[in-house]
Amino acid sequence: MAFSNIENSEKLDIIDIAIVNNEEFRSNNIFKETFKTLSDEENEERLFNTRYVLEEEAKTLLENDEIIRLYEARR
Question: Which of 1, 8, 25, 65 is the most exposed place for a label (fewest CB within 10 A)?
């Protein structure tokens, strides 16, 4: 009985992140598709509110606490 309502009471907050939209990101299909799926507004299991930005804008968003995480694909 202790876990009977766990799915309804434990809803995760959507996390604000930024992804640096650089050549490495654009050429990495697995990375792109993963974040596309995890950021899809129509997906009930959505985890991220994702912004695709240039590196400098990503740093500014992070400094201004507009996002909590910055992801940059690298080779």
Answer: 1
